[in-house]
């Protein structure tokens, strides 16, 4: 089996055709809190981003992969960020964009695939994730894949009304 191909989903690089999908996600205010976004993105800026998405992770220090079904339906995104090849670590974020596609195992399979990719092809020693304490489903998803809570950042995120805590989770390979 290919590293980025699972039983039900696959991960692939961004394509120019993903512009509308990215535009919808980046401008969906309901998920801005998850990505610490505060302003909308124009199609022009996203086109520029897509033009540079071909850059190697070693140069860009990040990689965004699209989660698709085997029939090429787009489900969401996986981000590898803060890529640090010297210290062999990176951060991981995942989003299943449509609420109707959540809780069907796509996120779990995508996370499993990206973990294997990071350890096998990027030769990383550890991955980490930052997850709001109230995002119980994401905490469970990452813990199911072997991530451990290693710390709590108190009053870390402000949603315009109140502060919330954020866990940092870590997965270290043997």
From TrEMBL:
Domain N-acetyltransferase: 9-172
Domain of life per record: Bacteria
InterPro entries attached to this UniProt entry: Acyl_CoA_acyltransferase, GNAT_dom
Gene3D superfamilies (UniProt xref): 3.40.630.30
Entries under PANTHER family matching the protein: GNAT-FAMILY ACETYLTRANSFERASE, SPERMIDINE N(1)-ACETYLTRANSFERASE
Name this polypeptide is given: GNAT family N-acetyltransferase
Organism: Microcosmobacter mediterraneus
